[in-house]
From TrEMBL:
Protein's name in the database: PTS glucose transporter subunit IIA
Pfam families, per the entry: PTS_EIIA_1
Chief localisation class: membrane
Keyword NAD: no
Xref: SUPFAM superfamilies: Duplicated hybrid motif (SSF51261)
Keyword terms, alphabetized: Kinase, Membrane, Phosphotransferase system, Sugar transport, Transferase, Transmembrane, Transmembrane helix, Transport
A GO cellular component annotation in the UniProt record: cytoplasm
PROSITE patterns reported for this sequence: PTS_EIIA_TYPE_1, PTS_EIIA_TYPE_1_HIS
Amino acid sequence: MFGFSKKKNLKEDSHLYAPLSGEIISISEVADPVFSKKMMGDGYAVEPTGNQLFAPVSAKVSLVQGHALGFVRADGLEVLLHVGIDTVSLNGAPFTFKVKEGDIVDGGQEIGHVDWDQVKKAGLSQTTMIVFTNTQDKLGNFEVKKGTTTAGADIGSAQVK
């Protein structure tokens, strides 16, 4: 009646969105072999110039940890947003998330921010990875526009098998 119980529905959306402003690079260029050798799945990375975080896909939030967010799209594709390299050691201190597990987000929606000064002071990399964690089971193919991007921009798409 008053819109208090208005629930957002998960929508089909194959688009990929920039989680941060910065330079989109190939995941194989990431300094951490866990990501560059695609041990967690295929994906891409961003060398950030901004600190606002945006949803890389339209999906349900499946995981909220201090340094990472997990998403599941309507088609079952699982996406991990891993902010920085080895930032798990910071116990979530530089990260503020506006979402919780179970929330439905639109691709390109603001979901939080990161204090890069804390990451830099710890001597850690800001490189942020977007990984399709069920690559073998679900990912058909994906394409992203490499180069400079703005947070929340439509940068490509991913199709399932």
